[in-house]
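P.,

For your records, the input lines for the assembly:
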Amino acid sequence: MEQKKRVLIVDDAAFMRMMIRDILSKNNFEVVGEATNGDEAVAMYKELKPDLVTLDITMPGMDGVTVLKKIRQIDSSARVVMCSAMGQQAMVVEAIKNGARDFINKPFHPQKVVETLRRALQ
Amino acid sequence: MLNQYVVFQLEDELYGVNILQVRGIEKMLPLTRVPNAPPFVKGVCNLRGSVIPVIDLKKKLGLPQKEDPNAKIIVVNVGKHTVGMTIDEAADVVTLDASEVEPSPSLVAGIDAEYISGVAKVYNRLLIILDMERILTADQINLLNELR
Amino acid sequence: MESMDLKTYLPVFIEESKDNIQQMSENLLRLEEDYGDAEVIDEIFRAIHTIKGMSATMGYTQLSNLAHQAENLLDEVRHGRIAVSPAMINGFFKVIDEIEEQLSVLGQTGEPKALDNRRLEEIKAHFAEARRADAGAAGKYRVEIVFSKDCLLRPARALVVLNQLAGVGNILHSDPPQDKLPSLDNLDKLVCHIAAASPQQVHDVLAGGVEIDSYTLEELREEAGQTSAAKPAEPQVNRNISTVRVDTEKLDHLLNLVSELVINKTSLQEAVASFPSLADDVEHLHRLTSELQNIVMNMRMIPLETVFNRFPRMIRDTAKALNKSVHFEIVGADTELDRTIIEDIADPLLHLLRNAVDHGIEPVAIRTSLGKPAAGKIVLRAYQTGNQVVIEVEDDGAGLDLDKIKAKAREMGLWQGQEPDDAEAANFIFAPGFTTSDRVTDLSGRGVGLDVVKKSIEALGGNIEVISNKNAGSTFRISLPLTLAIIQGLSVKCGDEIYVIPLSYIQETEIIYPDSIQMLGQQQIYMLRGQVLPVVFLADLLGFRDYVPPQEMSLVVVHFGERLIGIIVDDLLSQQDIVIKNVSWGQGYFSSFLGSTILGNGRIVLILDINNLLAGVKVREVKHA
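Structure tokens returned:
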């Protein structure tokens, strides 16, 4: 069997983290860590070297795009998928320009999330 | 039929709004107050270049008042109109089948049943689904007609 | 209103389309001489593009689809993917034939006809051949991607797809272009040309792609011949075209952008005090912005005739129903107004005109007994004066019964004490619920309505008055601002807040001190050059609690109907162009304000509705004291 892909979830809302974790663990991903803000995310990335990061765009303190840049500084091949809410196109575009692989929209459709993450890992 | 609801908290209760009516959730924005307006009109704010009124949802629903430092604004679209409403906690989203939504009892959490389109169980808690259209139009319709 | 508007444009549409067709024919003939003439190809492209846009606006979908197909083919030529061929030129001539036929039917019947199917088949065959004529290329593909219905943030999605495609090939071209995507709000589909080693790689990216509903992949053929070095795809405005039809949404968007610019300019003007070296540049910017603003405003202006046109029929029907004889005249229908105002002026005018027929013009018997012509006369007149447009509804009927109005007004508590003069009395008819009509006709209802008319006019920033002479008739005069969007305003400070007073209300300003305000009865007054001026604190009008007036205050003397009233504020801040932003909802709650504006620093400031604010203030007694 193929090795489970290791994912780091970054989101300030516990509810959102829970939802993503549920979706991922049901679909053969391994959630290796959950960060609640940018600083934690960067530290955990260094430590865990996950295959993929789901990164919330709006968080208190360091915002998603800044976190993305920091992670890509550490690892230029980092695979990051942004989590965005309605009306955040400008931020999403900014993130894609800065190397985000893809993005998923809240509200999350489990199937779309899984598809997007699988493709991002290819 | 599946519907999605943006869920937020007011005091201790969970409330839901159909996601189709929600344009976004914003941090508290600087408000300009509007003299001579009803007390539940908290003011107007600048949402990326548009001027939208902000309604104090707790006041409008007749709930007790506590200032919440984490208050946010949920921006809803009703018809052609865009209105902001203050809520306590950041929003989440749930998907519910129509069969999971029950008609509301006459009075929930002290809120006029007129404003409620149904209730549902989410995470073992009661979710009160608000009818934004009615909340906004209840006393506006007359005023607007008068202006026509 | 919708269909009526479009009908108005039909003649222009036909005329312009004919011009474009004519040009297209000429250019096709030139193209036949020289297949490689890129300039001619561009000209044809522009012509067909114009026709496409115009017919889409007019709602002639079939026609615009046809033009769209022709445009697409030409676009591929312009991008060097296929070459001009006899089949292509033949196809285009067929397209021209079809459009010409459509135009002639439209001219005769006003309605489009179904396209000629046989001709369409021929066109299709020609176009298909034109595309085949260029076989030979390998490895270049045209991909057209349609995103799923529920796909949010499509431009961002398109960017992701382009990134993924770039992983398997070389993106040659995309529509919309990659750098335009971030600024788009939405898009229907993404078209791109990609050079890839094998189509399978492209399929791998797209098949089952996230939020991709469907896609097509076709191989592109290498261009034969020198046809066209791909030119930038900007269709320029054709000089031969005197008018261009523009989507009103785009106009609104343009106005919004200009408004933002005005706001920014204003804050620059404020900041320039600290950077004197920039003064000239800012002054230049100011001139450019003003000019731009004027142009945009002018673009939004449409003639009143679009509204006036519907009235003759209505007058005729109303008069007939009432057994009256009315001669109706329209003067100045070419006067132009901002389209947002025009849309809202129709109903009030309709009301006034109906009233004129119903209550104004007397029955024939009475008219002849008074020695008046049997046929009554109603004139609808529009003209511009300064920054305002005046619309008058004038009739030569009975005039208002002022005695009856005065009596009724007294009954309603609209006046007491000294009797109002005639001019003042006439305007009581605009008071809510006012009616003197003895009989109730089904045409004008129960006399309800003039207060509504007044409110609608005021909501547009205008005002209405009536001048009446017994047995000679009445004239209702509506004054409207030329445009709603930008006004001159004075910003004032009151407590911690800032408000704007429209300059049009202001007579003058003065600095005053608390001890110069006196009491006369219940009314605060100020002696302005020996005249008694009733004054009121803005803080009181706005219901401020715990307001403490400063030692030095400012008095803004404003017109309120025929009177002058002083509004006391803390301080005057600045006079500037104010871009009015309507509040998105709940106008009913904002009765004290006309709207709002956003300052350079993002702060919202409310614009005072002087009429509504002062309506509640009792100042009548003072005038006669």
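Two observations worth noting. The mean pLDDT of chain B is 80. Chain B touches chain C through 29 residues (CB under 8 Å).

Regards
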